């Protein structure tokens, strides 16, 4: 996720540097041909690109809104994951209280909470197309890692272990049936959140819609130098570049926002959110080995 401050111009311009270079060269060639051969017939009415520019602006605005809706939905789902992770850990620690003495109960409570931390990291890794097993050894034992590695969907396997442990706790009498239902409902909400993230990830933004807008934008940029040549001469080179850069940046913004799990700076900050969940849940366990706080002072994004 991009932060409000310290966004370098190099990052912004880097998204369209090749397109801007091509536009500058193309516009300069048009100006040189017009100036050298005095080709008056090259000019076209300014109203033509103006009408196209208006239509393209509306289309880009609509596409940007749709892309932002996808990004915001992803962020909303991860906000629910934060809440349900805290709720699940609180329920585990409060339902299975200290009335049940014994080392096994203590290990059970801690294992459930640490597995929930692992689930958050594994889900973020999986959504980004990375290895969901990476870093699991910091939170769950090796026997559980061996179990989940047999699954394609690592987060789903971790939720299955949660369900098995809840059934075991019920049989041992550590929780009653009503508490088991409450815990299972929380697991169901976590499973629903995972499914929503997977839906956003696997639902491709309509390619034809993007392609048509891209073609229309390129045609608009191709016409623009011929409409301004009679009015500005060589000055039209920076003008066309500036106008084209504005449209291209809006298009690039929409392209990046439409994929909130694409392992880019514009992503939903799943790693940072998981780190906050880890901090909160470890404090609930009275574990003082908290994750390091990311210093974003000199960074313009968090992942």
UniProtKB/TrEMBL annotation:
<feature type="transmembrane region" description="Helical">
    <location>
        <begin position="231"/>
        <end position="250"/>
    </location>
</feature>
<keyword id="KW-1133">Transmembrane helix</keyword>
<keyword id="KW-1003">Cell membrane</keyword>
<dbReference type="InterPro" id="IPR044669">
    <property type="entry name" value="YneE/VCCN1/2-like"/>
</dbReference>
<keyword id="KW-0472">Membrane</keyword>
<keyword id="KW-0812">Transmembrane</keyword>
<keyword id="KW-0813">Transport</keyword>
<comment type="similarity">
    <text>Belongs to the anion channel-forming bestrophin (TC 1.A.46) family.</text>
</comment>
<protein>
    <recommendedName>
        <fullName>Bestrophin, RFP-TM, chloride channel</fullName>
    </recommendedName>
</protein>
<feature type="transmembrane region" description="Helical">
    <location>
        <begin position="43"/>
        <end position="62"/>
    </location>
</feature>
<keyword id="KW-0406">Ion transport</keyword>
<feature type="transmembrane region" description="Helical">
    <location>
        <begin position="204"/>
        <end position="225"/>
    </location>
</feature>
<dbReference type="Pfam" id="PF25539">
    <property type="entry name" value="Bestrophin_2"/>
</dbReference>
<feature type="transmembrane region" description="Helical">
    <location>
        <begin position="20"/>
        <end position="37"/>
    </location>
</feature>
């Amino acid at each position: 996720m991009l932060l409000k401050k310290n966004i370098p111009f190099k990052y912004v311009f880097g998204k369209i540097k090749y397109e801007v270079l091509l536009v500058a060269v193309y516009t300069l060639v048009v100006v040189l041909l017009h100036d050298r051969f005095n080709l008056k017939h090259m000019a076209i009415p300014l109203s033509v690109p103006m009408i196209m520019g208006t239509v393209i602006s509306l289309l880009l605005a609509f596409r940007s809104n749709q892309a932002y809706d996808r990004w915001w939905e992803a962020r909303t789902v991860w906000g629910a994951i934060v809440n349900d992770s805290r709720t699940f850990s609180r329920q585990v620690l409060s339902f299975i209280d200290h009335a049940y003495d014994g080392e096994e109960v203590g290990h059970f409570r801690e294992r459930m909470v640490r597995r929930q931390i692992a689930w958050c990291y594994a889900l973020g890794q999986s959504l980004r197309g990375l290895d969901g097993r990476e870093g699991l050894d910091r939170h769950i034992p090796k026997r559980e890692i061996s179990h989940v590695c047999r699954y394609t969907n690592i987060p789903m396997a971790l939720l299955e272990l949660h369900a098995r442990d809840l059934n075991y706790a019920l049989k041992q009498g550590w929780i009653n049936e009503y508490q088991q239902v409450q815990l299972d409902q929380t697991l169901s909400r976590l499973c629903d959140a995972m499914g929503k993230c997977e839906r956003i990830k696997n639902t491709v933004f309509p390619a034809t819609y993007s392609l048509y807008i891209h073609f229309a934008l390129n045609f608009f940029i191709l016409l623009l130098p011929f409409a301004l040549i009679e009015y500005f001469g060589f000055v039209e080179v920076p003008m066309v570049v500036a106008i084209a850069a504005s449209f291209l940046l809006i298009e690039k913004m929409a392209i990046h926002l439409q994929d909130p799990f694409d392992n880019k700076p514009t992503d939903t900050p799943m790693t940072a959110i998981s780190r906050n969940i880890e901090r909160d849940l470890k404090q609930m366990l009275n574990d003082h080995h908290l994750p390091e706080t990311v210093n974003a002072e000199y960074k313009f994004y968090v992942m």
